[in-house]
Write a structure and sequence with these properties.
Number of strands: 5
Helix content: 55-70%
Number of helices: 10
Strand content: 5-15%
Radius of gyration: 18 Å
Oligomer: single chain
Largest sheet: 5 strands, antiparallel
CATH architecture of the largest domain: 2-Layer Sandwich
Strand order of the largest sheet: 2-1-5-4-3
Distance between the termini: 48 Å
Structural class: alpha+beta
Length: 247
């Protein structure tokens, strides 16, 4: 590991630890985590799946819209490495997607079309339970080296802690935390849709506007999303954060 990359990895963990210690917005933290994966690991993009209390998987965060769409596609077609990783609780490494067409006949063409040639998925774990999976999508054929796989798993473990750290030991507390996190994600998607439509933005730019507004005003991302959805925060104010041209 180069000195520059080592500093970047250290800073990523310092930032995540500070957020966990000082209060955080779980949706924003997980979005940051997937962005860190794409930046620090030898992959093009990252996405995170989370299971609800019934075991149904949902897309919780993604570092790009094409990754978000591909993760959704996995769930809709009930096939793919990230889904298999989450359901099986073990890592799934696919250095070359083209050799797995028989295994995932719908997913592989969709992933190749999106510009991905390899996928590596690691489980999000809490003791003996699997909460979901972190998918690492490569733009070229090849296996992740051991250091990157360990770092990816460490980041997935941080995501698991972030999801449940406030949960008490009482039965149902963890599932309640997961339900709250999923509800926050749904709220964020609604706010992104509103901004995308009214501001003539793509979904990535809409998310960037929400995150920048939240940061500039020292608010949680979920709070800003809620305000956009219930119209207590004028959409124009959020769009102005990016200097967007409104219709």
């Amino acid at each position: 590991m180069t000195a520059h990359r080592e500093r970047a990895v250290t800073q990523a963990f310092v930032t995540l630890a500070a957020r966990l210690a000082g209060g955080y917005d779980v949706v924003d933290l997980l979005a940051t985590l997937t962005a860190d994966c794409a930046r620090l690991l030898d992959v093009a993009s990252a996405g995170l799946l989370l299971a609800d209390s019934s075991g149904v998987l949902h897309v919780m965060a993604a570092s790009s819209e094409r990754t978000h769409e591909l993760e959704v596609f996995q769930l809709q077609r009930a096939e793919g490495p990230c889904r298999d990783c989450s359901l099986g609780g073990v890592a799934v490494s696919v250095p070359d997607l083209t050799v797995e067409r028989d295994r995932w006949p719908a997913f592989v063409p969709a992933a190749l079309s999106a510009g991905f040639a390899s996928v590596h998925a690691v489980p999000m774990r809490l003791r003996d339970s699997t909460l979901g999976a972190l998918g690492l999508f490569g733009g070229s054929v090849g296996a992740l080296n051991a250091d990157d796989l360990l770092l990816g798993q460490a980041l997935a473990d941080v995501a698991s802690v972030a999801l449940v750290q406030d949960a008490a030991t009482a039965p149902g507390a963890v599932s309640g935390q997961l339900r709250a996190a999923l509800s926050s994600r749904v709220l964020l998607e609604q706010a992104k849709g509103i901004l995308a439509q009214l501001g003539n933005l793509d979904m990535a730019a809409a998310l960037a506007a929400l995150r920048r507004y939240a940061g500039d005003h020292d608010q949680r991302l979920t709070e800003v999303a809620q305000a956009v959805v219930n119209r207590s925060l004028p959409v124009e104010q959020v769009l102005d954060t990016l200097g967007s041209v409104r219709p």
